[in-house]
Write a structure and sequence with these properties.
This protein has eight helices and 17 strands. With about 350 residues, it is α+β, with helices and mostly antiparallel strands. It has two domains: about 10-70 and about 175-349, Zn peptidases (Aminopeptidase); about 75-160, Elongation Factor Tu (Ef-tu), domain 3 (Beta Barrel), CATH 2.40.30.40. Strands 1-2-12-3-13-16-14-15 form an eight-stranded mixed β-sheet, sandwiched between helices. A six-stranded antiparallel beta barrel has the order 4-5-8-7-6-9. α1 crosses α4 (about 180-195) and α6 packs across α8.
């Protein structure tokens, strides 16, 4: 399907969102792109913490919030040593196993190419080559002396692994930042599906900041929105050859509907019934406590919000080669759309 406003297919939309920079606390580029898209459908603003807030049909009888986070994991410069190497740490849960020998982009006074140093095993002490990777022992080489590096890079500047999105076989894609740009894509598609059909539902979209470091963006955004329902869209661990299948979900079988003590049980059951009624495949993801997503921050905001979690299956989380199926984005947007239109019909009855 080609989306009317973006003039892109679902796959093109998702990959285009992944191309944009935006680590936790520094999401301005992806926020501007998201605002440009949503402003063609809805009234939008960027709030104090950088969240993109978009509203349609304010004053509607039923208030629904759709949330996905904009930030992606990355790196931060914590120092420059005497030889010009940039000392680094993680921003969010970057998988350190993917860092050694990687190409990176450093966002200094300009975008700078670099590589993360890799000590050859020949030069390591015996046994050290098998030790876990400590990111604070790694460094980025941008090719400059200390004096030149300090002119272009400051402590606190961010960096990301320089990896492009690729098309895999079938409808699968691989890209950094699919967590959670694929969730953003599913929300945008759902908005396009329903926006012209709403008269009684007030629809709010929150593309939030800082999820990868605790979720401050979603917490504050939800406080300012009195919603009846909130659907958080994030990613879930997809099965592969090495995973425990009881702790994962499958690609191409639709979003998982979260089951957790912090999520509203009646809302979860309602989503399942809507999915069955409309023939939309879905899966389950059972969590014994909190979800580890922005659902934890939204459900107890202000006086409390009925909150549900939809997770898009994703492999290789927090690496430059995250993998999803476009079919799962479509099925997730279908379920969101069906729920919104169900609430619209209930108000019309």
């Amino acid at each position: 399907m080609v989306l009317r406003v973006t003039n892109m297919t679902e796959k093109e939309l998702c990959l285009s969102l992944c191309e944009v920079y935006g680590t936790p606390g520094d999401e301005i580029e992806i926020a501007k792109k998201a605002q440009d898209i949503l402003s063609q459908y809805m009234k939008t603003e960027i709030d104090t913490l950088g969240n993109v807030i978009a509203k349609f049909n304010e004053g509607g009888k039923t208030k629904i919030v759709l949330e996905a986070h904009m930030d992606r994991v990355g790196l931060v410069v914590r120092g420059i040593d005497e030889k010009g190497f940039l000392l680094i740490d993680k921003v969010g849960g970057t998988d350190t196993r993917t860092l050694v020998g990687a190409n990176v982009v450093v966002f200094g006074s300009e975008k700078l190419p670099g590589v993360i140093c890799s000590t050859p095993p020949h030069l390591m002490k015996k046994g050290d080559e098998d030790l876990p990777i400590d990111v604070t022992k790694l460094a980025i080489d941008i090719g400059y002396s200390k004096e030149k590096a300090e002119q272009l890079v400051k402590i606190g500047d961010r960096a990301i692994i320089d990896s492009k999105g690729v098309n895999l076989l079938g409808d699968r894609i691989s890209s950094p930042a699919l967590d959670d740009r694929c969730g953003m894509a599913s929300v945008i598609i759902a908005v396009e599906n329903v926006i012209k059909k709403l008269k009684n539902v007030e629809l709010t979209v929150v593309f939030s900041t800082q999820e990868e470091v605790g979720g401050s963006g979603a917490k504050t955004a939800a406080f300012n929105i009195d919603a009846d329902y909130a659907i958080c869209v994030d990613v879930g661990f997809a099965s592969d050859l090495l995973c425990d299948r009881t702790q994962t979900i499958d690609l191409e079988k639709g979003a998982s509907i979260g089951i957790s003590p912090v999520l509203d049980r009646t809302f979860m059951l309602e989503l399942k019934e809507v999915a069955k009624k409309n023939g939309i495949p879905f899966q389950h993801d059972v969590m014994s406590a909190q979800t580890g997503t922005n659902a934890d921050n939204i459900c107890n905001s202000k006086g409390g919000v009925k909150t549900a979690l939809l997770s898009i299956p994703l492999r290789n989380m927090h690496t430059p080669v995250e993998v999803i199926s476009i079919r799962d984005i479509k099925l997730t947007s279908d379920l969101i759309s069906a729920f919104i239109l169900e609430k619209e019909e209930q108000q019309n009855a």
